[in-house]
What we know:
Elements: H1 4-20, H2 26-57, H3 61-95, E1 100-101, H4 108-122, E2 129-131, E3 145-152, E4 159-166, E5 173-176, E6 183-186, H5 187-193, E7 203-214, H6 228-239, E8 244-250, H7 255-265, E9 272-275, H8 285-291, E10 304-305, H9 315-321, E11 324-328, H10 334-345, E12 349-356, H11 364-374, E13 378-383, H12 391-404, E14 407-409, E15 416-417, E16 420-428, E17 431-439, E18 451-458, H13 461-476, E19 487-489, H14 493-509, E20 515-520, H15 526-538, E21 541-546, E22 563-568, E23 573-574, E24 577-581, E25 589-593, H16 599-603, E26 605-611, H17 615-631, E27 636-639, E28 645-647, H18 658-666, E29 670-671
Parallel strand pairs: 1-6, 8-9, 12-13, 13-14, 15-26, 18-23, 20-21, 21-22
Antiparallel strand pairs: 2-4, 3-4, 3-7, 5-6, 7-8, 10-29, 11-18, 12-16, 16-17, 17-18, 19-26, 20-24, 22-27, 24-25, 25-26, 27-28
Helix pairs in contact: 1-2, 1-3, 2-3, 10-11, 11-12, 14-15
Amino acid sequence: MFNRELSWLTFDRRVLELAEDGSVPLLERVRFLSIVSSNLDEFFEIRVAGLMQQEESATHPATREFLQEVLRQAHALVDAQQACWRDQLLPALAKEGIVVKAKEQLDDADRAELSPRFDRDILPALTPLAIDPSHPFPVLTNKGLYLLAQLRDPETGEVRRAVVPIPRVLPRVLSLGSGAKRSFTLLSLVIELFVDRLFPGLDVLGSWAFRITRNSDLYVDEEESGNLLETIEDEIRNLRKGAPVRLEIETQAPEEEVTWLLKSIGLGADNAFRSAGPVNMVRLSSLIDQVGRPDLLYPSFAPVLSPDFTDPQKLYSRIAKHDLLLHHPYESFNPVVDFIRQAARDESVVAIKLTLYRTSGDSPVVEALKEAARNGKQVTALVELRARFDELNNIEWARQLEEAGAHVVYGLAGLKTHCKACLVVRQEKGGLRRYAHLGTGNYNPKTARLYTDFSLFTADEEVTADVGLLFNVLTGNLAKPKFKHLLVAPFDLHRGIIDLINAEASAAQHGRKATIFAKVNSLVDPDVIKALYKASQAGVKIDLVVRGVCCLIPGVAGKSENIRVRSVLGRFLEHSRLFRFENAGGDPVILMGSADWMPRNFLRRVECIFPIRSKHLRKRVEQEILGTYAERLGDAKFLQPEGAYRSALEVGRRGPSAQDAFLGMANHLQPEPVSAAPKARGRSVRRPR
């Protein structure tokens, strides 16, 4: 198996290749460059932090050697990222009239403009922190931006140091001039330019921007926790004091200052990363908005509405007749919101149940649930408080829902609730009837415009009965549920997937056609990989689309020569999970859901994989979606046995991509109303959430 950490870095290298690709719109390349930094932040906060903890407690030298190899490859990636900014993007931006100035490029006119702005808009927000025997080294915030200043007392000649925190509220990219002479520079450079004003009476020998990354994994003992919500709040506050795992600092900083800084925070030299460009490239994405050049972005796109969804008032009657499927972001997420909003206002609806893992800051889904509770519906919200980096947001949503009268629960002890499900119960002529929405992505309208996902609406009595059982498990802590159509982790998903793989191997051994298609974000689970190897050896043709981490090694003679692995990166984040098995008894089985093929998804999360049972929808998935992924390889790179990724096309050629094809298919449908479309923001190839 490939190593998980090194595979993660290989994924980030493929994201960087999009920033280096001249055929990608220029400002989108800047966005991809910022995504690499965002991904690396999480990589250090979680994966490197874990490796460092293992290294501290381990006695085997291989643990230290592996950590050093991870850091070596991370350094190489950061060096390539800095080179991309310096050698490719800066010159390309300048050719388009978008000049980003370094400190030495700020001329007298720039200084004259910046001086009063610094005094008015920046200086009042800065608080220098002296470091001396009476002022110990301060606690520095995770991923906060700081300035290290070296100072000298002109009377005594004493050399001192100080740290200047740069508040997060200040914009990191500043505009200079106007019209044709407009340019940009970095906030940290402006502060360095006028840093002497913070230290009157002292000589400033130098100042350098730096940033510290800390261990950000939550450690919560649920059995010892009297109140999970309050415990997680306390733990989040403690994260600011998590162990440092990385120092990023400007290249110009003298070696002795870097050494002193590393000693002050307790890090080794291998964990220091020098930056010739911006210390935090995540914030470069703000340049995209300031520039205002849509011609340097992907063409604008509005998700579409199929005829089944143009009238929200008829949504439930249509679902009652047949299952409906949406393919986001090509098709609008609005019907998902309408599904919940209509339920909140429908007098026939008696109950709404929903899982909430991540949502947007102004979530219409949460507002609809609050409205439903105020309207007297029985509203049950499964809010996952441990959704990484969204813990505080979810705590706030939980409190708001409780205040509105909803019943809020936090799932099963020791398990994250990651499944995406909503169940609506209506009183109809024949009695109570259940309607369900099952998805592969979060109830988040904003990311639904950036991530590829599926939404299934169904009133199928057998499937909705399983969804009802799923919610009873989450709220009632049922020990051994028996699902008929859903595969649910941690109960039967792992075994079910392996059984489906083994069924293909058995079919191949008996001379029948045997194929597997699986599209996931990550493939890590050893048992699933072993089953895939055995299926390949039996003759099963296996096509895997794995966007990020992949520990399976394809193309090994006698072991995995029948396995093809490709990664699809592009304008949208490939987030959907989709599976097809040829021999599940009768017709091939098509499945979708929330789970990647990783131990955490199989064993430590509540996940839901659901079948596509409608013949019409199965035909659509086979022809439009699976067929497109098979035929359109312009955005695909294939994993090689040695671990490299190579394009299916000749070097320098770009062929038709799957995402372009899906955009084309959507063009014949009706675009959603402009007023309902939030402005697309954020990251498009982030790590899975």
